[in-house]
Amino acid sequence: DGTYNLARNLQRPVLFFNQGGETQQISTGEDHEHTFGLSIEQTLFDRRLGAAVSAARHGNAASEARYDRALADVALETKEDYYAVLLADAAVEVREGAVRLATECVEQVRLFRDVGTASDFDVLTAEVDLENLRPDLIRARNELRLAENGLKRTIGLPLDEEVALVDTLAFDPIPIGLEEALARAQSARDDLEAEAQTVELSEELV
What is the structure's pLDDT at 51? Predict the structure, then answer.
């Protein structure tokens, strides 16, 4: 700790003394007096210190566990958005295939009508079926665009940047039972570890 004091003398102190019958005076001091002070304090022993250090360790461990949990949440969100794009892309392919087949059907029915084996009503029915499929294709393409924008937002890419996913949807099961899943969740989840460290921190603070 440090201190600093400044004293300003409106009138300097004067000493009077008699010399040879004459009174003499001498001014002492300064117009401004500066005083500095410095003190250092060091704790050598405190029973609270051990608990404080332990509490700090628990607090740090809880923060690291929450950070790891945040990383896991970001990874999960990225995977969900990535698979959403794959699913939306597959849906577009299905809708495009349906429109393509309906277009071929219309052309085939028209040929049948030209040779007399189909009526105008059959052609009209095929054309209506084709037009009914186009809104589904437009909706699927819009959903794909939204899914791509969601993935870009999650991974921090500009929305105007093009992305091309290199994976495909595939069934890859993981053999795991419920009891095994519960045990793994209780031992490996970072948020549970963070809560446990928070409890230890609170006990140390008490």
Answer: 78
DSSP label of 36: E
Single-letter amino acid code for the residue at 25: Q
pLDDT of 200 higher than 80:
yes
Q: How high is the pLDDT of residue 48?
A: 75
Contact 2, 35 (CB under 8 A): no
Asked whether the predicted pLDDT for residue 32 surpasses 90, the reply is no
SS3 17: strand
Backbone angles phi, psi at 9, to 5 degrees: -85, 120
Structure tokens belonging to residue 25: 């005076």
Residue 177 is classified by DSSP as -
What are the tokens at 104? Answer: 């071929």
Count the Cβ atoms, other than its own, within 10 Å of residue 33. Answer: 11
Q: Which residue matches tokens 């609170």?
A: 202
Structure tokens at 204: 């140390």
Write the DSSP symbol of residue 115: T
